[in-house]
Amino acid sequence: MSQIIAFIAKLGAMLHPWMSEIATALVACCIVVFATDINRVLRKALSGQGFFVRTWVFVLVNAFGYGLAIVSVSPWLARQLKSMPSQWMLLLLLVAFFAVGAWAQRNRQV
């Protein structure tokens, strides 16, 4: 069992140089999967507003909100993942990407 844990830890340690890119990919995947739901909620909330207000909010949320989320959350997530033991970080990343993929498949976004 210790050999398996050591192997998983070694694989996880190999990901450390690319942790920034991995964190960015995870955040971007989450945004892509959940953006439809967020936009649907915004559309319902702004249904009584005029065209200019709806368009302005859509641009703010999609261009600046999602971009700001990627830029601000990705470095934080990379730091959190780097601070974890390598074997747990690898397993967490696998579960997270599979969960995002399963959610996207369930909601037919793939």
Explain what this protein looks like in three dimensions.
With 110 residues, the chain is mainly α. The protein is 85% helix and 0% strand. The chain has four helices and no strands. The protein has helices at residues 2-14, 19-45, 51-83, 86-106. α1 packs across α4 and α2 packs parallel to α4 (86-106). The relative contact order is 0.18.
Order of helices and strands: HHHH
Strand content: under 5%
Distance between the termini: 37 Å
Radius of gyration: 18 Å
The helix content, as a percent range, equals over 70%
Summed up, the helix count is 4
Structural class: mainly alpha
Major sheet characteristics: none
**Principal-axes shape call:** elongated
Low-confidence spans:
none
What is the arithmetic mean of pLDDT?
A: 91
The total beta strand count reads: 0
Topology:
Blueprint lengths: L1 H13 L4 H27 L5 H33 L2 H21 L4
Helix pairs in contact: 1-4, 2-3, 2-4
Keywords:
85% helix; mainly alpha
Provide a short characterization of the protein structure.
The chain has 110 residues and is mainly α.
